[in-house]
Amino acid sequence: MTDLDRRHFVVGTAGAMLAGEALGCKRSASDGEPAARPPVRGPANAALVRVTSVPTAVEGNVLPVLVRAFEEQTRYRVELTTSSAPYDAARAGKVDLAISHYGHKHAEDFVVDGLGEWPRTICSNQLALVGPRADPAGVRGLDDAGEAFRRIAAGKHPYLVNELDGTRYVNEILWHLAGRPDRGAWMRNHERDDALIVAAGAGAYLLWGLTPFLRTRKREGLTLDAFALGDPLFQRLMVAIVVRPVVDGINVEGARAFQQFLLEPATQARMRTIAYSDDEKIAVWVPAGRHNRNAVLPGTKG
Questions:
Q1: Is residue 269 in a domain?
Q2: Residue 293: strand pairing partners
Q3: ∠ CA(159), CA(218), CA(281), 5° rounding?
Q4: What's the whole-model pTM score?
Q5: Is 24 helix (H, G, I), strand (E, B) or coil?
Q6: Same domain, 75 and 131
């Protein structure tokens, strides 16, 4: 057995053991065989689907619009909540479907531990290159974020490196795309939530989530705009994970029905048209159809 084979065997075995523990299988002291766990009870209300999501998908209007459409077309009613830690509620059996970014720090563990079904990609929201409305670097109209960053660096325009939510990683990609320019006084770190306000005062550029940017710009009256929205580098995949019935009360059928609805071609198309708000007509959602396999999509053949 090669080292690679051993690694796969260990990882696969560990995953199976974790899944078994999550499902409540315990070894019997007498015969060493797994002891059967009493079956879990189904949901108290089979027509209610409890969905929790990271805030951006609710604040950005996509889930409220789609929940209303789902309720109109089916017998289900959706209880929609938001949380920055959706998998805590999912582990506690308080929700049936969890929605988050694919890179959420707890999403992978939730599935590997045997508590969630395979994540299904439903859409992307995105980061944005945010900067002064006057745009001294001349990046307005560019779809290439690397070229935009090159222009900012070439003119040594102020740039804040946002350390929040893993955006330093994207900043590093942009730096390499721009030819690894010298890091000088024009480029400085800023780790606090007030970065947008600081940027507006300093005439600086930075990366920020598009949805929270739109909210803060409206609330604070900031003279900032979002640029390079067409670059796929800024897209952040979001997934829906059905909670497995390892505790009482999980509405698996309802969760799968809503997840399937989110994957329908008509729903995917509608996502692209949903604006942030009546005041902000920017469509912030990108359908995730290209990330899904035909064999598992509704209305298609493998």
A1: yes
A2: none
A3: 100
A4: 0.79
A5: coil
A6: no
